Amino acid sequence: MIDLHTHSTYSDGTDTPRELINFALSAGITTLALTDHDSIAGWEEAKQALRGELDLVLGAEISCLTEDGISVHMLGLLFDGTNVEMAQMLKETRDSRIPRMKKMIQLLNEEGIEITMEEVVRVASDGATVGRPHLADALVARGFIASRNEAFDGLLNNDSKFYVSHLAPTPEVAIAQIKAAGGVSVIAHPFASFRGATLDESSIESLVKAGLNGIEVNHRDQSENERSQLLEIARSMSLVVTGSSDYHGAGKLNSLGENSTDPRQWELLEAKADQRRVVKA
To answer: Which one of 3.10.129.10, 3.50.30.40, 3.20.20.140, 3.40.50.720 gives the CATH number of domain 2-95+167-280?
Structure first.
């Protein structure tokens, strides 16, 4: 079973990379990708914890914004973690999250929802990329909401008046940088409309021209109709089809392996990297 999209405590997951490896082994996963938001900080711990028959794919989920402000998440897999330009792009994206978070907190405070930056940082793990899930956790801790899911359904949704975008590369720039670092790119949950505005087919054509390698078709946040549309787009544009859990541990309902990637599709995707970088025990 191949799961190409998971998170650890180095972004907004609740499992350490070591715990993630353990849970993946227990769940019968054969190939696991660690894709923390804008961060590769968990790679080393994951490699050290690797054992058994599990293959590890190192990557990151890169936060992007289109020219007209649509939020896009790009999975970069199998890239060279020592690539300087890639590291700089990830760092700049992470750094921009702090002023963005402070602005969102300010907007919440103005509406009488008293929360502080200190409370948000307190619920994040050391070294984590701070994001909306941590703000959600802080709001849960204060009793304003019941869960992360409730936060993303309302207060922290992309269409909420409290939502603030942050400095991020365009999807085309991210794809080009992933490729320059030797990796492959897969657009994550592109039709998950409940999150906010989504790309249309013509926008995906632009990403293909930029070098996009695959589409995450099977994801819990996409309906059967949306999956069918994406499958047709993937076929018409010769893109690899993936399925993933987008696992966050206790932070979301998603379960490891609930959606997976066909081994033949994974072979096609891996072959597009400039060299074999799958880590084996």
So the answer is: 3.20.20.140
